[in-house]
From TrEMBL:
This is ABC transporter, ATP-binding protein. Gene3D superfamilies: P-loop containing nucleotide triphosphate hydrolases. InterPro entries: P-loop_NTPase.
Length: 183
């Protein structure tokens, strides 16, 4: 019995979000809660598989730090040490941090570790919600080029949601209008 596969032809319009290139960092400035709701609607409507990092998330206290970093990852156990060493090198972190408690980290170290966790996740689209407000200008200047390198190495697409125009003005971030993304 011969079975011929059939393909459903779709005429769905590709969302402007899908057109964003992998290996790039984009930034959107939003100023009102309704704009954030509009973005959430875009993600839901387009059924985008994203991983989002906001200031309210923490690591699971009952898991070792290394397991927390790979919690949403599909990276094989045998490859984890190499991948983690590479991430620590990009973000200029000492491997000795793995032996410490997450609660003992500085704010800057916590943000870097949470970004590493985000980058190691299996999704290709990452959203970082305005988490840099607690960082100094020097720390922001340090982390943005590190993020650009890490996004390129991990083949991810990163979208910043921020109220701070200085982040969008960075040479490491491509400005993106909320209007362009919604249409």
């Amino acid at each position: 019995m011969n079975v011929t596969p059939s393909f459903k032809k779709t005429t769905e319009k590709k969302s402007s979000f899908d057109a964003l290139a992998l290996r790039e960092v984009y930034g959107i400035i939003y100023s009102a809660p309704e704009q954030e709701l509009a973005l959430a609607d875009v993600f839901q409507t387009n059924q985008l598989t994203i991983t989002r990092l906001s200031s309210s998330e923490t690591f699971l206290p009952y898991l070792p730090l290394e397991e927390n970093l790979f919690i949403a990852s599909t990276i094989k156990e045998r490859d984890r040490k190499v991948v983690l060493a590479e991430a620590f090198q990009v973000f200029q972190l000492e491997p000795a941090l793995l032996g410490r408690s997450f609660t003992s980290f500085t704010t800057f170290e916590k943000i870097k570790m949470r970004i590493i966790q985000l980058l190691l996740s299996k999704t290709s689209t990452l959203v970082i919600d305005d988490i840099f407000s607690s960082l100094t200008i020097g720390q922001r200047q340090e982390i943005l080029p590190q993020l650009k390198i890490a996004v390129q190495k991990r083949n991810k697409r990163l979208l910043f949601l921020t109220k701070d125009p200085q982040i969008i003005d960075s040479p490491y971030v491509h400005p993106l209008s909320l209007h362009a993304l919604l249409n």
